[in-house]
Amino acid sequence: GGNGFAFFEAHMQAGVREQVELARDLRAALAGEPGGGTLALHYQPKVATEEGDITGVEALLRWQHPQRGAVGPGVFIPVAERFGLIVPLGDWVIAEACRQLAAWRDEGLQMRVAINLSVQQLRQPDALVRRFEEALARHAIAPGQLTCEITESVAMDDASATQRALQRLATLGLALSIDDFGTGYSSLAYLRRLPVSQLKIDRSFVQDLETSADARAIVKAVIELAHALSLQVVAEGVETEGQAAVLRGKRCDKLQGFLFARPMPAEELSRWARDHRG
Ligand code: C2E
Ligand code: CA
Ligand code: CA
Ligand code: CA
Questions:
Q1: What does the CA dihedral 90, 121, 95, 20 come to, rounded to 10 degrees?
Q2: Of the bound ligands, which one is closest to the alpha carbon of residue 202?
Q3: Contact yes or no for 254/55 (Cβ under 8 A)
């Protein structure tokens, strides 16, 4: 099932030799060689809190390894970052997301896709912006159909290249979203200076909403702060009706999580989206 890699992910402290092997196979996968297995994007809906309509999807990378089966991104993304593969892998994600947007458009489905960016991609602003421009142009996709999710710690990276990259992506017309919000230490003043339009509340807070008054207080404060700064708020990892009810009460804009849908292959997503259109 969708969580086939959970055991492997939770228990594998990939040793150095294992990491070297994974890096070799990932390189093969990127080159389209049979020994590398296959890469794919799965898509998880973000729904409007009130109406339950789909507002867009997050693209999550999947790797089907020829011997190991499904390897989770929690395992192979750190390997890619360590072995210099995250930029080519990220380029593949950008191209694939745009290709899929065009395929959906051709079947009459207008969609927005959010992709996850690694800090190493942002540290090469020129190459990154060029990648987006190429992929958007090749498939005639409007930049506003793409959102870049960057974690709070990455957004706070004070390398000037990273900050320049964020500005240039925003200028290109992409939407920026701060992922895993609440886990870092960003100050309000700083957040206000970033060209972002969305905050995603980290799952760790969402998980505790029904049991912890502290979690409720934090989430309430984050939503009010975000709205005061004209940012949209998405809650990630919503698994129960109780959590959704609390978030509805606090006027969270969008919800994402297993309660609504798991990440799924493109064809399945297109059926799901048709059933959940406004
Ligand atoms: P993330 O960006 O925070 O993505 C959310 C993760 O939570 C995903 O795990 C998703 O499947 C999972 N999730 C969604 N709803 C629920 C829920 O209700 N309950 C629970 N328990 N989990 C939920 P996934 O797909 O294993 O991805 C893990 C991380 O790997 C992502 O965290 C992201 O940091 C990274 N990642 C995935 N795809 C990419 C990619 O294309 N590029 C980069 N740089 N990183 C990626
Ligand atoms: Ca994300
Ligand atoms: Ca997240
Ligand atoms: Ca998270």
A1: -20
A2: 4
A3: yes
**pLDDT one-digit tens code per residue, 22-46:** 999 999 999 999 899 999 999 999 9
**Which atom of ligand 1 is found nearest the CA of 117?**
44
What distance in angstroms lies between residue 196's CA and the mean position of ligand 2's atoms? 14
Residues 6+ apart with CB under 8 A from 86: 77, 80, 118, 120, 121
Locate tokens 């912890």: which residue?
A: 212
The better pLDDT of the pair 214, 13 is held by 214
Residue 158 has pLDDT above 60, yes or no: yes
Side chain identity, residue 277 = R
Dihedral sign from CA coordinates of 187, 189, 194, 195: positive
**DSSP sequence for 173-196:** T-EEEEEEETSS---HHHHHHS--
User: Is this model's pTM higher than 0.80 or not?
Assistant: yes
Supply the ipTM of this predicted assembly: 0.98
Q: SS3 of 184, please?
A: coil
One-letter amino acid of 198: Q
d(CA 160, CA 170): 16
